[in-house]
Design goal:
It is a single chain. The chain is mainly α. It is built from 20 helices and 2 strands. A two-stranded antiparallel sheet has the order 1-2. A hairpin with a 5-residue loop joins strand 1 and strand 2. The radius of gyration is 22 Å and the shape is globular. The N and C termini lie far apart (56 Å).
Amino acid sequence: MSKKISFLICLLLSMYYIKSTVDLSPWKHKTIIDQDIIFYYGYVPATFIYHDLSFHFPSQPGFKGTVWCIPTPTGNGIQKMTMGTAILYSPVFGIAHLYTKLTGGLADGYSPNYQMALIWAGVLYFILGLFLLRKILLQFFSGSVVSLVLVALSLGTNLFNYASWEGAMSHVYSFFVFALALWAFLKWLKSPKVPITIILGLALGLLVLIRPTNITFVLFLVLYFFFRPISLKEKWTLILGLKWKLLLLVAAAFMVCLPQIIYWKIFSGQYFFFSYLGERFYFNNPHIIEGLFSYNKGWFVYTPLMWLAVAGLFVMRGAYKAWLWPTVIAMTITFYITFSWWCWWYGGGFSCRALVEFYVVMSIPLGAFFTYILQKKFIYRTITTVVLVFFIWLNLFQLRQYRTSLLHWDSMSKQAYWAIWSKQTWPQNYDKMLLHLDAEKAKKGESAFP
């Protein structure tokens, strides 16, 4: 029965996300293909409509879309982002393109039907990721705990924003692929047959192709393989027994990335081209404290529900004890890499958007926390319920503030944060409270704070 309840929770959450999408009428007047999405999306119309990955088509008379390119040593222009997100856009793009042609609309890849299709794509991949995450968690937790985890992550974190309002950004797509990879990995450990080996390889290749820094999730899986409660001899026996299947897994992952490598070679002259010109990591000067705790975008400030997941790390027992060190190590390295990027606040967004996909990883300690609390006295369960409800309310309320720009997309400060606390109106002198970070200084490795 508890499994049926968790399934019902998934359905209700899916319906809620769909409703939130339908109700957001401002999208009819909002450009979806904007900012980073211009780079993510550019591959799709270039491939399927204009058949021109050299991106000369924007110069055609009457073209109304927006295309940005990064210059290469060969004089060509290429897309800044890798094509993983574009691959996942493609099925929904195909539906939008067919509908537009059948209804006599402007089938240029940028008219309103295509724009709205990207928002629906975000909801679609969130729903798929949610159901996969449910399947994963039910292997370790009761149906009641799984329901709590799904509700908490869906409504109490910035995943809600990146699966609906900003569903065309790459994060919910990574969330889906993370869930797919973990689901396939667990099945592969039990029975490494050829089909699941290929699925796992494709998922691992795709998650790296969406965001190369997602490779820390691969480390998470590798660490779990070695931390599992079986002897070292059994682990090496399994590895040796896999033989060519490991090669098949690597080959499948490589095949997903191969189109990107070919694309780079053709249009940049290099097999691996760093397209983030003038941008870099500063591994000698990471901003981990600011990224996690600052009022600008601090993950634990704007997504405080993650404190419950951190608490769960201290009570990981039984079947999920083996996940403890893989989670700690992988997330620590993820924090280090994420906040070593010059723009550690990641531009416009709500909370730390670069960590949204890693809720798949944090779902396990969060489940451990809820399992622990449900075994405690009524008073502890009551306090946890109140805290959980508060975190969900806070997340949804601040998202409403964010969508009206009351909660600023990239310039929040401590003063501004508390001035708008629980309010929906602008306080006096609000502009003077904002803390505008200096991107040019940050690119040089200097402090972005004024």
